Each structure stands twice: as C-alpha cells, then as structure tokens.
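User: For documentation purposes, I need each entry recorded in a consistent format: the amino acid sequence on its own, followed directly by the corresponding structure tokens. There are two entries in this batch. Please keep commentary to a minimum and don't merge the entries.

Assistant: Recorded as requested. Entry 1:
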Amino acid sequence: TGGPEAFDCLWNDDQMGEGWSDYLASMLTMRATDERSLARPMGTYTRVQPNSGQGIRPAAYSTDMAVNPYTYGDSNDPAITMPHGIGFIWATMLWDFTWDLIDEYGMDPDLNGGDGGNNVALGLVMDGMKLQACEPGMVDGRDAILLADSLYHDAANSCLLWNAFARRGLGLSAQQGSTDDRFDQVEAFDVPAACVGIGVAGTGAAPPAFRLLPNPAQGAVSVRLATPVQAGAQ
C-alpha cells in the first residue's frame, strides 16, 4: 500500500491490515454455492469451535445486519482492538460491497480469468491498496476503491459502492480525523446526490423501504431498512 515507492505503511492506529487479511482469506475460499446471508466467521479452528462459531472476530462476516451490525462508528469503541478489530470493521464493508457486486454481475468461480462480481470486487480492493496513501484510514481506503472503479470501470459501480459504504457508516460526510488517533472517527450514512435513490446493487431502481431476511423464513427474521435509523431518531 502507498504506491511503488513506499514501504512500511501500515503502522498507524487506523490502518486496516488485518481487514485485508480476513477479506482475502474469505474471498479465496468462497464457493459458488455461497449466498450473501451466509455467516463467514474467521479463525473458528483456533477457538476449537465448529464452522458455525463466532471465531476470533467480534462477529462473523455477513451482509445481514442482525448477524454483523458493526459500522464505522464502532471503531471508536475501546473494546474494538487495534489492529484486529479496526481491520474487522473494514473487512465488513468490503464484504458488503462484494456481495452487492455479485448480485449485479453474478459469481464466477474462475478467480484468475472470470468476470463476475467477485472478480470485480477483488480487483477493486487490490487496486485500492495500490492507489491509497501511506498510513491510510478507512476514508482513504474508500476513496481509493472509488478511484479504482473510476479508472478501470469508468465509475460504473460508483453508486453501488457509495451505498454499500454508507450502509456501514462510511458515507460521504464520514470523517476519519487523524489516522494516528483511533478514537476520532465520525460516521455518516449519506451518499452523493447523484446516488440518492439508486439501488444498492446499482440497478437504477429505488430500493424498497425495507426487506425481510431471510425470505422465506424459518424462525427469526431481520428487517433491513433502506434508510438507516440514527440513534435517538423519533
């Protein structure tokens, strides 16, 4: 990260190195039969847990907010460790937009030559690492991925990415503060004006007011709102 002339760029407090590790491990073990609601824990073996256990992170990776409710603001919580917990929140965001891209373009099991949403996502994450500044925070990482999409895909996925990041609190108005101060992050759930009303998978259709997941359900269901509810909202 930090470009070809840089090295030793991931020592700052807000750096997301452990998140990229988790993301790459999850991507390279993804199966064509996986679904976005599937919970993907990390490191269950080291905790002597079954594959359905929580693993070594605060939650399993999942786009389901009932399984993994973490957002950018949670990175201010002292209980979220640095760098592992900080990276976990970043990987949660990457996992979300990966599944939005899979919904848009499908999944291709060919990691090297495929053209599915998983291939697009993996390319954007890798190119983002190359494009971002040394000692990055999550806003830097977000902007680098958006830049990669602009450079290599003519910004075709811009609104999809914005909506995915905003869903996890890394929206347009989010502030990372100093990348050496892990307690000054400010989350936001807004998107650029051009992306308001664009479906989370970039279809151009307005998202429904809410979704019930899973559908059909057996037992518990979660409600996903199109507009996140702020704390204290009436």
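Entry 2:
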Amino acid sequence: MPFPNFALGKRQRLLLFLLGLLLVIGVETILHNEQQRLRNATLQQQLTAGDQLRVRLEKELNIPLYLTASLASYLSAKHGQLEANELKMLLAGLVRQSPHIRNIGIAPANRISYIYPEQGNEQGNEQALNLYYPDLPAQWPAIEAMIAKREARLSGPIELVQGGRAFIYRYPIFLEDDSYWGIVSTVVNIEQIWQLLTSTAAELDLDIALREVSTSGESAVSFFGDNQIFSERYLTLNMAIRGAEWQMAIREASIPGSRLLLLRLSLYSTVLLFLYLLSRLLATVYRLQQSRSALTESEQRLRSIHDNVLDGIITIDQQGIIQTANHACYRIFGYTPPALVGQHWRKLLSSSEYIEQHFDTTTDGPVEYECQGQRADGHPFELLLFHTPLPQHNL
C-alpha cells in the first residue's frame, strides 16, 4: 500500500502499515460476508423462480403424457380391438386437450397403423403411417428395452420421419393375458415447448439448461441451454416428468455484483481517506517529536555551556526570585541548589541598598556594577555584577 510522502518515523510507518493491513482484512471480511448474503439471497430467488419454471414445464409435458396413458388404458380395456370412427373421435378429443401434441399414433405389433391428425395435414404426419419400429436402428434398442421393462418412456429430442424434431412418449400395451399388443406414441411439439421455456425463463431473468439422467445415474449432455450451467456454482433441480429423468440447471441471466462493487469502492475509499488523514496526523506528531527532541538537545547543550562557565550565572523573575543558577554560582557563593533557588537575589549581596537604588529587574539593557557579594557562611567578597534582561515571550 503506498504511503503519502510525509516525514514519518519507523514506528509511525509500521503503525500505519499494520493498521492498513487490519483495515484491509476487515474490509475483505465485510465484503465476504456481504457476498455470502447476496449469494444466499440470489440462490433463494433462483430457487423460487426455478421452481415456478419447473412446475410450469412439468405441467405442460405431463398433460399429453397422462392423456397417452389414458388412451393406452382404453385400448387395453378394449382388448386391442380398434374401431376407426370411435378411435378417430377419441384421438381428436385427446389432441384438443393439449396444444403441444403434434400427433398421436397407434402401432399394433410395432407398426403405426393409426395416426391423428389424419393423412394429408400440413404437418406431414402421413409419412409416419406404416412405420415399423424395428426398422429404426437409432430408436429401436430403446423401444425394445422399454417393451422388455413394460414401462412408458419419454424420448427426445428425436428427428422425425415426417420432418422436424420432437419428444415422443411411447406407452407399451399388454393385454389381460399378459401378451404384448403394441405401442401408443404421442409426439410432443418441441418448438412450442422451447418457446414456452425461453419466454418464461426471460420473464424470470434466468438462463436454464435441461438434460436427461439415465436410470444408472449417468448424466447426458444438455439438450436445451448451455451445458456449462450444470456445475456446482449453479442450482440444479430434479424434474418429475412421467417416463423420464430430467434435471434443470438454473443461472441468473443478469450478472450480479454491481452492489458488491459499489460497496467495495466505498469501503476502500473510506479506508484510504482514513489512512491519509492518519498519516497526516502521525507526520505532525513526528515533526513535533523531532522538534521537541531538537529543543531538548539544544537546552541540554545550553545547560552544559551554562554549567561549565567559570562565572556564576543566575536567572530571576520580575520579582527578583532566583529561578536557576549554574554550578559556578553554587561554588562561588557556597550554596546548594535547594538553599538558593526560590530565594531573592539580594541574598547574594552583602549590602543591596545602593544596588537597588540604581537598578532593578526592569532595567533595560546590560548593566555592570561593582559591589560586595556575600557567601553562605557570611563572608563578604568583591563582586562584579552584570545584569542582562532576557526577552519575554507571551504564550
């Protein structure tokens, strides 16, 4: 982290660095917690929206599949006896109940003998008439396995003989004597399903993908959407589709993070501003410490000079009270510091009347006098007195 170009000592720099490091850790912790909160909220929203989409798709697919199961039950109850007029009315009614049914075919002994809508319609369904399932090498193994297991299966997307792609729900029919009769197949219009899926996902602001899962648990490549959505980062839902094992993966279409980015910028801006102001404060404190150290050093130097001169030196206040004295003064007058500091300066003179008449503490400029000093033991001696006023600084 770059520091402002201020005069800082090692301790101040270390303090600033450690504090900056702690603030960065704190910011990243806040961002991590916020990211987790946003992620949990996003997952909850995705789960709600994805569940709506899953239920909608299950409903649209299961309706034609249940209709197919009903038709298979009817044919089984009729012992496989088909009446063309009755069958036509029944198939027409079933197709009307689901807009996604492209056609329904009936294949006794695995050959499509009936199909609705009838031949000649614009969808080209007549091309599937007389289709024999064992002649479809790509589809027959799955159909044969379905018959062997006696279970209905939803297959697809499948390329149709009559053109286009669709899902096909095939239901094997067995009679009361347990003999295999044939297959009922319902072709579900894939384009309508995809359109419904795409529009609903757009309304919910989701990207979705669909894939089939085999009975052994192996997942196939998605047949709708981006297969990369199937990852641990995104939500995966199992779907209840009759005759199939599907999974739906959900990803939020709009990329989240703008709020997190704004929070990151604001927090780091605050941290940088705080560190800048703190560095200014520390630089000021450091300069004051340097100034104080220089002043202390200067005072010590002056004190050393003051104490090592041979002449006695005292400082007094405006009332004449001794504030300081150097070593030579104590030696000359024979006093100890406690006995001299705090006394009036007249204590150092044998007779002060003449001196007081000619100068006092307010005398301007240097003044020199010859007088008699008096030691602590009372002995007088000749003294040459210099008075020099010091400038006063008002704080």
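Summary note for entry 2:
The CA atoms of residues 31 and 263 lie 8 Å apart.
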